[in-house]
Sequence to fold (428 residues):
Amino acid sequence: MSDEDAGENGAAAVTAADGGNTTDPGDGTQKHEPGKRTQEHGPEDGAQEQGPEQDPSAQPEPAPARVPVLRRLLRSRTARAVTAAGLAGALLGAGAVAWRTGTLPLVGPAPCWDSLGDSAMSDLFGDRRTEVEEQTLQADPVGRGDSYGQCRITSYKDDRARRQVTLRVHRLDGLRGTDGRDWPAEFLTAGMVPLGDGLPGLSSSSRAWLALPQSCTGRDEFTGPTVVDIAMGPTGLDLASDYEREDRAALTRAVVEATNGVIRDFGCSGTYRTPRTLPAPMERKETDADAFCGAKGFTLPEAHRKDLTRTRVGGDGGPARVCEAGGSYNPAVRLTTVTDAALSEIFSSGTLRTGLSVKGSKGSGSIDGTRAVYRASCQTGPVVFVVEQLDHTEHSVAGLARELLPGYVAAEAERIGCGPEKVTLPGS
Fold:
Protein backbone atom coordinates (compact mmCIF):
# COMPACT_ATOMS: atom_id res chain seq x y z
CA MET A 1 0.00 0.00 0.00
CA SER A 2 1.37 3.46 -0.88
CA ASP A 3 1.95 6.33 1.56
CA GLU A 4 -1.07 8.27 0.38
CA ASP A 5 -3.35 5.27 0.96
CA ALA A 6 -2.20 4.72 4.56
CA GLY A 7 -4.34 6.00 7.45
CA GLU A 8 -3.06 7.42 10.72
CA ASN A 9 -3.00 5.33 13.88
CA GLY A 10 -6.47 5.53 15.42
CA ALA A 11 -5.93 3.58 18.63
CA ALA A 12 -5.76 4.96 22.15
CA ALA A 13 -8.76 7.29 21.76
CA VAL A 14 -11.58 7.01 24.27
CA THR A 15 -15.07 7.88 23.12
CA ALA A 16 -17.95 9.14 25.23
CA ALA A 17 -21.63 9.78 24.58
CA ASP A 18 -22.57 13.27 23.45
CA GLY A 19 -24.30 14.21 26.64
CA GLY A 20 -26.72 12.09 28.63
CA ASN A 21 -26.03 8.85 30.43
CA THR A 22 -22.63 7.25 29.80
CA THR A 23 -23.16 4.02 31.69
CA ASP A 24 -22.13 0.64 30.30
CA PRO A 25 -24.47 -0.57 27.53
CA GLY A 26 -24.96 -3.82 29.40
CA ASP A 27 -26.18 -2.09 32.53
CA GLY A 28 -29.54 -0.43 32.30
CA THR A 29 -29.85 0.04 28.58
CA GLN A 30 -33.07 -0.08 26.64
CA LYS A 31 -34.36 -2.66 24.18
CA HIS A 32 -34.80 -1.07 20.78
CA GLU A 33 -37.91 -1.54 18.75
CA PRO A 34 -37.62 -0.26 15.17
CA GLY A 35 -39.50 2.99 14.72
CA LYS A 36 -39.79 3.66 18.46
CA ARG A 37 -37.70 5.50 21.01
CA THR A 38 -38.10 4.00 24.44
CA GLN A 39 -38.07 6.20 27.51
CA GLU A 40 -37.58 3.72 30.34
CA HIS A 41 -34.82 1.23 31.01
CA GLY A 42 -35.44 -2.35 29.91
CA PRO A 43 -34.27 -5.53 31.59
CA GLU A 44 -30.63 -6.49 31.62
CA ASP A 45 -29.32 -9.40 29.64
CA GLY A 46 -27.10 -10.72 32.37
CA ALA A 47 -25.96 -13.72 30.38
CA GLN A 48 -24.28 -11.55 27.77
CA GLU A 49 -23.50 -8.19 29.33
CA GLN A 50 -21.16 -7.37 32.18
CA GLY A 51 -21.63 -4.65 34.71
CA PRO A 52 -19.06 -1.90 35.17
CA GLU A 53 -17.39 -3.70 38.06
CA GLN A 54 -16.43 -6.60 35.79
CA ASP A 55 -15.74 -4.62 32.64
CA PRO A 56 -13.15 -1.81 33.03
CA SER A 57 -13.91 -0.59 29.51
CA ALA A 58 -17.44 0.32 30.48
CA GLN A 59 -16.88 2.60 33.48
CA PRO A 60 -19.01 5.77 33.47
CA GLU A 61 -17.27 8.67 31.83
CA PRO A 62 -17.58 12.40 32.55
CA ALA A 63 -20.02 14.34 30.43
CA PRO A 64 -18.40 16.39 27.66
CA ALA A 65 -18.69 20.11 27.26
CA ARG A 66 -22.12 21.45 26.34
CA VAL A 67 -22.99 20.69 22.74
CA PRO A 68 -23.79 23.77 20.65
CA VAL A 69 -27.48 24.42 20.01
CA LEU A 70 -27.15 23.94 16.24
CA ARG A 71 -25.38 20.61 16.64
CA ARG A 72 -27.96 19.39 19.17
CA LEU A 73 -30.72 20.36 16.76
CA LEU A 74 -29.00 18.48 13.94
CA ARG A 75 -29.04 15.26 15.97
CA SER A 76 -32.70 14.93 15.06
CA ARG A 77 -33.23 12.44 12.22
CA THR A 78 -35.57 14.84 10.43
CA ALA A 79 -33.30 17.84 10.86
CA ARG A 80 -30.34 15.74 9.78
CA ALA A 81 -31.96 14.62 6.56
CA VAL A 82 -33.33 18.06 5.69
CA THR A 83 -30.08 19.88 6.44
CA ALA A 84 -27.90 17.39 4.60
CA ALA A 85 -30.22 17.48 1.63
CA GLY A 86 -30.14 21.26 1.62
CA LEU A 87 -26.38 21.36 1.72
CA ALA A 88 -25.76 18.71 -0.88
CA GLY A 89 -28.79 19.46 -2.99
CA ALA A 90 -29.84 15.84 -3.30
CA LEU A 91 -31.71 13.05 -1.57
CA LEU A 92 -30.49 9.66 -2.74
CA GLY A 93 -33.50 7.35 -2.43
CA ALA A 94 -35.76 6.74 0.53
CA GLY A 95 -34.02 7.30 3.84
CA ALA A 96 -30.61 8.06 2.33
CA VAL A 97 -28.69 11.32 2.30
CA ALA A 98 -25.37 12.24 0.75
CA TRP A 99 -22.98 15.12 1.15
CA ARG A 100 -19.36 15.96 0.49
CA THR A 101 -16.72 17.12 2.91
CA GLY A 102 -14.17 19.54 1.59
CA THR A 103 -16.74 21.14 -0.72
CA LEU A 104 -19.32 22.34 1.83
CA PRO A 105 -19.08 23.74 5.37
CA LEU A 106 -19.41 21.05 8.06
CA VAL A 107 -22.27 22.54 10.09
CA GLY A 108 -24.31 19.33 9.95
CA PRO A 109 -23.92 16.03 11.76
CA ALA A 110 -20.87 13.81 11.57
CA PRO A 111 -20.87 11.01 8.97
CA CYS A 112 -22.57 7.66 9.62
CA TRP A 113 -25.34 8.43 12.07
CA ASP A 114 -23.54 11.39 13.59
CA SER A 115 -20.83 9.11 14.92
CA LEU A 116 -17.48 9.45 13.12
CA GLY A 117 -15.51 12.35 14.51
CA ASP A 118 -12.78 14.34 12.79
CA SER A 119 -10.01 12.13 14.16
CA ALA A 120 -11.66 8.92 12.96
CA MET A 121 -12.17 10.40 9.50
CA SER A 122 -8.60 11.64 9.37
CA ASP A 123 -7.28 8.24 10.44
CA LEU A 124 -9.14 6.59 7.57
CA PHE A 125 -8.87 9.16 4.79
CA GLY A 126 -6.23 11.72 5.70
CA ASP A 127 -7.09 15.17 4.36
CA ARG A 128 -8.63 13.97 1.10
CA ARG A 129 -12.10 14.99 -0.04
CA THR A 130 -14.77 12.48 0.96
CA GLU A 131 -18.28 11.69 -0.20
CA VAL A 132 -20.74 10.08 2.23
CA GLU A 133 -23.89 8.10 1.43
CA GLU A 134 -25.93 7.26 4.51
CA GLN A 135 -29.20 5.44 5.13
CA THR A 136 -31.47 6.25 8.02
CA LEU A 137 -31.40 3.44 10.58
CA GLN A 138 -34.66 1.54 10.48
CA ALA A 139 -35.76 -2.08 10.10
CA ASP A 140 -35.99 -3.25 6.50
CA PRO A 141 -39.43 -4.84 6.03
CA VAL A 142 -38.32 -6.61 2.85
CA GLY A 143 -35.31 -8.13 4.61
CA ARG A 144 -37.43 -9.44 7.52
CA GLY A 145 -36.00 -6.79 9.81
CA ASP A 146 -32.43 -8.12 9.77
CA SER A 147 -30.93 -5.03 8.11
CA TYR A 148 -31.07 -1.55 9.64
CA GLY A 149 -28.93 0.56 7.33
CA GLN A 150 -25.63 1.22 5.62
CA CYS A 151 -23.16 4.07 5.35
CA ARG A 152 -20.53 4.32 2.62
CA ILE A 153 -17.64 6.78 2.55
CA THR A 154 -15.40 7.27 -0.47
CA SER A 155 -12.30 9.46 -0.53
CA TYR A 156 -10.93 11.14 -3.65
CA LYS A 157 -7.68 12.60 -4.84
CA ASP A 158 -8.68 14.98 -7.60
CA ASP A 159 -11.36 12.96 -9.40
CA ARG A 160 -9.93 9.54 -8.66
CA ALA A 161 -11.43 7.40 -5.90
CA ARG A 162 -8.67 6.36 -3.51
CA ARG A 163 -10.33 4.51 -0.62
CA GLN A 164 -13.83 3.32 0.27
CA VAL A 165 -15.21 2.18 3.61
CA THR A 166 -18.65 0.62 4.11
CA LEU A 167 -20.37 0.33 7.48
CA ARG A 168 -23.45 -1.85 7.96
CA VAL A 169 -25.86 -2.30 10.85
CA HIS A 170 -27.62 -5.66 10.75
CA ARG A 171 -28.77 -8.58 12.82
CA LEU A 172 -26.98 -11.85 12.06
CA ASP A 173 -29.36 -14.61 11.04
CA GLY A 174 -29.09 -18.21 12.17
CA LEU A 175 -32.41 -19.81 11.34
CA ARG A 176 -32.32 -19.38 7.55
CA GLY A 177 -28.56 -19.75 7.24
CA THR A 178 -28.08 -16.47 5.38
CA ASP A 179 -25.13 -15.40 7.57
CA GLY A 180 -23.56 -18.77 8.32
CA ARG A 181 -21.10 -18.76 5.40
CA ASP A 182 -20.45 -15.42 3.73
CA TRP A 183 -20.25 -13.27 6.87
CA PRO A 184 -17.75 -15.56 8.68
CA ALA A 185 -15.65 -15.71 5.50
CA GLU A 186 -15.15 -11.96 5.85
CA PHE A 187 -15.39 -11.28 9.57
CA LEU A 188 -14.21 -14.51 11.27
CA THR A 189 -10.75 -15.04 9.84
CA ALA A 190 -7.31 -15.80 11.24
CA GLY A 191 -6.15 -12.29 10.40
CA MET A 192 -8.46 -10.80 13.02
CA VAL A 193 -7.64 -10.05 16.65
CA PRO A 194 -9.95 -9.43 19.62
CA LEU A 195 -10.81 -5.82 20.38
CA GLY A 196 -10.12 -6.50 24.05
CA ASP A 197 -11.38 -4.56 27.07
CA GLY A 198 -14.56 -6.62 27.10
CA LEU A 199 -15.63 -5.50 23.62
CA PRO A 200 -17.54 -8.26 21.72
CA GLY A 201 -15.84 -7.98 18.36
CA LEU A 202 -12.78 -8.55 16.18
CA SER A 203 -10.59 -6.38 13.95
CA SER A 204 -8.04 -6.65 11.14
CA SER A 205 -6.47 -4.21 8.71
CA SER A 206 -9.43 -4.54 6.31
CA ARG A 207 -12.40 -5.69 8.42
CA ALA A 208 -13.81 -5.04 11.90
CA TRP A 209 -17.06 -5.71 13.72
CA LEU A 210 -18.63 -5.02 17.09
CA ALA A 211 -21.85 -6.41 18.56
CA LEU A 212 -24.43 -4.09 20.09
CA PRO A 213 -25.52 -4.88 23.68
CA GLN A 214 -28.36 -7.39 23.69
CA SER A 215 -30.05 -5.40 26.43
CA CYS A 216 -30.43 -2.68 23.78
CA THR A 217 -31.36 -4.77 20.74
CA GLY A 218 -32.84 -7.97 22.16
CA ARG A 219 -32.32 -11.34 20.49
CA ASP A 220 -34.68 -14.13 19.49
CA GLU A 221 -33.90 -17.83 19.32
CA PHE A 222 -31.76 -18.82 16.31
CA THR A 223 -30.61 -15.25 15.73
CA GLY A 224 -27.14 -13.90 16.25
CA PRO A 225 -26.18 -10.52 17.66
CA THR A 226 -26.91 -7.21 15.99
CA VAL A 227 -23.55 -5.97 14.75
CA VAL A 228 -21.92 -2.95 13.23
CA ASP A 229 -19.31 -4.11 10.74
CA ILE A 230 -16.90 -2.13 8.63
CA ALA A 231 -15.16 -3.22 5.44
CA MET A 232 -12.29 -1.61 3.54
CA GLY A 233 -10.99 -3.13 0.33
CA PRO A 234 -11.45 -6.65 -1.07
CA THR A 235 -12.28 -9.62 1.15
CA GLY A 236 -9.22 -11.35 2.53
CA LEU A 237 -6.81 -8.53 1.69
CA ASP A 238 -4.83 -8.65 4.94
CA LEU A 239 -1.33 -8.41 3.56
CA ALA A 240 1.52 -7.62 5.92
CA SER A 241 2.68 -4.05 5.43
CA ASP A 242 4.07 -1.08 7.29
CA TYR A 243 0.52 0.25 7.51
CA GLU A 244 -1.23 -2.85 8.89
CA ARG A 245 -1.27 -1.59 12.46
CA GLU A 246 -2.41 1.88 11.43
CA ASP A 247 -5.24 0.58 9.25
CA ARG A 248 -6.37 -1.86 11.92
CA ALA A 249 -6.36 0.87 14.56
CA ALA A 250 -8.29 3.20 12.26
CA LEU A 251 -10.96 0.61 11.52
CA THR A 252 -11.22 -0.27 15.21
CA ARG A 253 -11.75 3.35 16.19
CA ALA A 254 -14.31 3.83 13.42
CA VAL A 255 -16.34 0.73 14.31
CA VAL A 256 -16.43 1.68 18.00
CA GLU A 257 -17.53 5.25 17.26
CA ALA A 258 -20.12 4.05 14.76
CA THR A 259 -21.49 1.53 17.25
CA ASN A 260 -21.83 4.25 19.87
CA GLY A 261 -23.74 6.33 17.34
CA VAL A 262 -26.07 3.41 16.62
CA ILE A 263 -26.64 2.81 20.35
CA ARG A 264 -27.64 6.45 20.69
CA ASP A 265 -29.80 6.36 17.55
CA PHE A 266 -31.60 3.27 18.85
CA GLY A 267 -32.54 5.20 21.99
CA CYS A 268 -30.25 3.24 24.34
CA SER A 269 -27.73 4.61 26.80
CA GLY A 270 -24.05 4.01 27.32
CA THR A 271 -20.91 3.87 25.21
CA TYR A 272 -18.07 1.55 24.33
CA ARG A 273 -14.50 2.75 24.75
CA THR A 274 -12.00 2.52 21.93
CA PRO A 275 -9.26 0.11 23.08
CA ARG A 276 -5.95 1.80 23.78
CA THR A 277 -3.93 -1.06 22.34
CA LEU A 278 -4.57 -4.07 20.12
CA PRO A 279 -2.71 -7.41 20.03
CA ALA A 280 0.14 -7.74 17.59
CA PRO A 281 -0.80 -8.75 14.03
CA MET A 282 -1.03 -12.50 13.60
CA GLU A 283 1.74 -14.07 11.53
CA ARG A 284 1.87 -17.31 9.58
CA LYS A 285 4.12 -19.88 11.17
CA GLU A 286 5.40 -23.32 10.32
CA THR A 287 2.77 -25.92 11.15
CA ASP A 288 3.27 -27.93 14.32
CA ALA A 289 1.90 -31.27 13.18
CA ASP A 290 1.72 -32.61 16.75
CA ALA A 291 -0.28 -29.64 18.02
CA PHE A 292 -2.10 -28.53 14.89
CA CYS A 293 -3.65 -25.05 15.16
CA GLY A 294 -2.02 -24.68 18.56
CA ALA A 295 -4.29 -27.32 20.13
CA LYS A 296 -2.39 -29.82 22.26
CA GLY A 297 -3.17 -33.39 21.25
CA PHE A 298 -4.50 -32.46 17.79
CA THR A 299 -2.28 -34.37 15.38
CA LEU A 300 -2.35 -33.46 11.70
CA PRO A 301 -2.68 -36.61 9.55
CA GLU A 302 0.56 -37.54 7.79
CA ALA A 303 -1.03 -37.34 4.34
CA HIS A 304 -1.70 -33.60 4.68
CA ARG A 305 1.52 -32.36 6.22
CA LYS A 306 3.11 -31.41 2.89
CA ASP A 307 0.02 -29.40 1.92
CA LEU A 308 -0.67 -27.62 5.23
CA THR A 309 2.80 -26.30 5.97
CA ARG A 310 1.88 -22.79 7.18
CA THR A 311 -0.60 -21.95 9.94
CA ARG A 312 -2.03 -18.74 11.37
CA VAL A 313 -4.26 -18.50 14.45
CA GLY A 314 -6.24 -15.36 15.27
CA GLY A 315 -8.97 -14.19 17.63
CA ASP A 316 -7.61 -16.07 20.64
CA GLY A 317 -9.34 -14.75 23.75
CA GLY A 318 -12.17 -13.16 21.79
CA PRO A 319 -15.63 -14.36 20.72
CA ALA A 320 -14.12 -16.74 18.12
CA ARG A 321 -10.72 -18.36 17.63
CA VAL A 322 -9.81 -19.05 13.99
CA CYS A 323 -7.02 -21.18 12.54
CA GLU A 324 -6.15 -21.15 8.83
CA ALA A 325 -3.62 -23.53 7.31
CA GLY A 326 -2.26 -24.07 3.81
CA GLY A 327 0.78 -23.32 1.72
CA SER A 328 2.65 -20.05 1.44
CA TYR A 329 -0.33 -17.84 0.60
CA ASN A 330 -3.97 -18.92 0.37
CA PRO A 331 -5.31 -21.12 3.18
CA ALA A 332 -6.70 -24.52 2.25
CA VAL A 333 -8.60 -25.13 5.49
CA ARG A 334 -10.18 -22.98 8.20
CA LEU A 335 -11.02 -24.25 11.69
CA THR A 336 -13.16 -22.03 13.92
CA THR A 337 -14.14 -22.29 17.57
CA VAL A 338 -16.98 -19.93 18.53
CA THR A 339 -17.33 -19.50 22.30
CA ASP A 340 -19.67 -16.49 22.27
CA ALA A 341 -23.17 -17.89 22.79
CA ALA A 342 -24.96 -15.27 20.67
CA LEU A 343 -22.47 -15.49 17.82
CA SER A 344 -22.69 -19.29 17.80
CA GLU A 345 -26.34 -19.01 16.71
CA ILE A 346 -25.39 -17.97 13.18
CA PHE A 347 -24.30 -21.58 12.62
CA SER A 348 -27.65 -23.02 13.76
CA SER A 349 -28.74 -23.88 10.24
CA GLY A 350 -25.41 -25.61 9.60
CA THR A 351 -25.82 -27.87 12.61
CA LEU A 352 -29.45 -28.74 11.86
CA ARG A 353 -30.01 -28.98 8.14
CA THR A 354 -26.76 -29.38 6.20
CA GLY A 355 -25.38 -32.73 5.09
CA LEU A 356 -25.11 -35.93 7.10
CA SER A 357 -25.77 -36.04 10.83
CA VAL A 358 -22.86 -36.05 13.27
CA LYS A 359 -23.28 -37.27 16.84
CA GLY A 360 -21.16 -36.56 19.89
CA SER A 361 -20.98 -37.08 23.61
CA LYS A 362 -22.20 -33.56 24.40
CA GLY A 363 -23.60 -32.31 21.13
CA SER A 364 -24.44 -32.86 17.50
CA GLY A 365 -23.88 -31.39 14.06
CA SER A 366 -23.66 -32.12 10.38
CA ILE A 367 -21.11 -32.61 7.65
CA ASP A 368 -21.02 -32.32 3.88
CA GLY A 369 -18.16 -32.65 1.42
CA THR A 370 -16.23 -29.54 2.42
CA ARG A 371 -17.76 -28.30 5.68
CA ALA A 372 -18.51 -29.70 9.12
CA VAL A 373 -20.34 -27.88 11.93
CA TYR A 374 -20.61 -29.30 15.45
CA ARG A 375 -22.39 -27.72 18.44
CA ALA A 376 -21.52 -28.80 21.98
CA SER A 377 -23.16 -27.93 25.29
CA CYS A 378 -20.41 -26.76 27.61
CA GLN A 379 -20.43 -25.44 31.17
CA THR A 380 -20.18 -21.89 29.85
CA GLY A 381 -22.93 -22.35 27.25
CA PRO A 382 -23.06 -23.50 23.63
CA VAL A 383 -19.79 -23.73 21.70
CA VAL A 384 -19.61 -24.29 17.95
CA PHE A 385 -16.72 -25.95 16.10
CA VAL A 386 -16.49 -25.42 12.32
CA VAL A 387 -14.09 -27.08 9.88
CA GLU A 388 -14.11 -25.75 6.30
CA GLN A 389 -12.05 -26.84 3.32
CA LEU A 390 -11.44 -23.66 1.34
CA ASP A 391 -9.37 -25.13 -1.47
CA HIS A 392 -8.32 -28.56 -2.70
CA THR A 393 -4.89 -29.85 -1.88
CA GLU A 394 -2.63 -32.30 -3.68
CA HIS A 395 -3.82 -35.14 -1.47
CA SER A 396 -7.44 -34.12 -0.91
CA VAL A 397 -9.87 -32.69 -3.45
CA ALA A 398 -12.51 -32.95 -0.72
CA GLY A 399 -12.85 -34.71 2.60
CA LEU A 400 -10.56 -32.64 4.82
CA ALA A 401 -13.50 -31.57 6.97
CA ARG A 402 -14.41 -35.18 7.71
CA GLU A 403 -10.83 -36.14 8.50
CA LEU A 404 -10.10 -33.21 10.80
CA LEU A 405 -13.39 -32.71 12.70
CA PRO A 406 -13.11 -35.47 15.36
CA GLY A 407 -9.55 -34.59 16.38
CA TYR A 408 -10.22 -30.87 16.27
CA VAL A 409 -13.32 -31.02 18.46
CA ALA A 410 -11.64 -33.32 20.99
CA ALA A 411 -8.52 -31.13 21.31
CA GLU A 412 -10.33 -27.79 21.30
CA ALA A 413 -12.89 -28.98 23.84
CA GLU A 414 -10.05 -29.90 26.19
CA ARG A 415 -8.29 -26.58 25.57
CA ILE A 416 -11.31 -24.47 26.52
CA GLY A 417 -12.32 -26.68 29.44
CA CYS A 418 -15.27 -28.35 27.75
CA GLY A 419 -13.88 -31.86 27.35
CA PRO A 420 -13.82 -34.71 27.06
CA GLU A 421 -15.74 -34.65 23.79
CA LYS A 422 -15.95 -37.46 21.27
CA VAL A 423 -17.46 -37.06 17.81
CA THR A 424 -18.84 -40.01 15.87
CA LEU A 425 -18.92 -39.58 12.09
CA PRO A 426 -21.71 -41.03 9.93
CA GLY A 427 -20.84 -44.52 8.73
CA SER A 428 -18.28 -45.05 11.50
Notes: Residues 1-107 have pLDDT under 50 and may be disordered. The two ends are 50 Å apart (CA to CA). The longest strand covers residues 160-173.
